[in-house]
Amino acid sequence: MVVYSGALIGFMGWGVWAHHMFASGLGPIADSVFGATTMMIAIPTGVKIFNWLATMWGGQVRFTTAMLFAMGFIAMFVIGGLSGVMHSSPPADLQQTDTYFVVAHIHYVLFGGAIQGLFAGIYYWFPKMTGRLLNEKLGKLHFWLMFIGMNLAFFPMHFIGLLGMPRRIYTYRPELGVETMNLISTIGAHVIAVALLFFIYNVWRSWRRGEVAGNDPWGGAMLEWTIPSPPPDYNFTVIPEVVSRLPRWSVTHMKAIPEVPPQPIHVPGGSYWPLVAALGIIGMATGAVAHTLWIVLASGAVLIFSIYRWAFEPFEV
Ligand SMILES: [Cu+2]
């Protein structure tokens, strides 16, 4: 169900975006179609949200920075989803769409949703990528400042928009009564900026002298946690046979992964021919745009030549 929901959201996504553009005069048919899809996309999204909640319900939640970002993502994305469903009614949407209300909505979806999800991923996989853990204290400071900052910045925009302040415009008359709320928004934006400074400092510091991560700092269930951090170029010398959905946890639940001793492996050395091949493609595109046949042909020759050189390059031992 979760996979189907993901696929459905991806597919329906082609048919909801215009709910941000109803004021552009699409006409009643387009408005109705995009309004109906906006209503329907709430169903698979709801499936996903209940799945995430139920996953936590059945688990032992550890409040690491990565987890805090993941949970913050769910909460903020739900708020963005609720204001999103409000767009499915074209007459209501017509009022909201060219105001700060829609700015609030899209930031709860994209900042509260996507950006917090990205940060959850960065905190979770940074030790696998670099071999060192990000500092948790700085990480939590980053999370809370960003979480508070984003709500200060974006929540008042719902009211600012409904009171009539148009989007993409930063000036307004004092009679509109949105001065205090705009000030709160501005303060929130600066809090987000400060939060990001803590993040940048954390990455800079932890990359050089953070806590050494080892293979598996989190007690992860998946195969990437069985190999060193950072992983060798070839990942595994012997492709492991996976017999359960959670291979590293299977010791207690199901059959364990059989331990295969590492074996010698041949890895192709670094080659610059792929880069030359890519330049050939760029040359072909440039020649086509410039309507110059000989550039296309010459670049095509470069492409084919470098693919052959690349393919026949000897292995370095
Ligand atoms: Cu939207």
Could you describe the 3D structure shown?
The protein has 317 residues and is mainly alpha-helical. It has two domains: 2-209, Cytochrome C Oxidase, Chain A, CATH 1.20.210.10; 273-311. The chain is built from eleven helices and no strands. The protein has helices at residues 2-12, 28-40, 42-57, 65-85, 90-96, 100-130, 136-162, 179-209, 250-253, 273-289, 293-311. Helix 6 (100-130) runs antiparallel to helix 7 (136-162). The two termini are 47 Å apart. The model has no long low-confidence stretch (mean pLDDT 89). Bound molecules: copper (II) ion.
Based on Cα principal axes, name the global outline.
globular
- What are the segments in which pLDDT stays under 50 over at least 5 consecutive residues? none
Bound molecules: copper (II) ion
Helix and strand succession? HHHHHHHHHHH
Termini separation:
47 Å
Q: Report the strand count.
A: 0
> What is the residue-averaged pLDDT?
89
Identify the CATH architecture of the largest domain. Answer: Up-down Bundle
Oligomeric organization of the protein chains? single chain
What's the level 1 CATH class of the largest domain? Mainly Alpha
If you consult CATH, what is the topology of the largest domain? Answer: Cytochrome C Oxidase, Chain A
The domain count comes to: 2
* Radius of gyration over all CA atoms, rounded: 26 Å
SSE-based structural type: mainly alpha
Number of helices: 11
**How much strand content do the residues show?**
under 5%
Give the biggest sheet.
none
CATH homologous superfamily annotation of the largest domain: Cytochrome c oxidase-like, subunit I domain
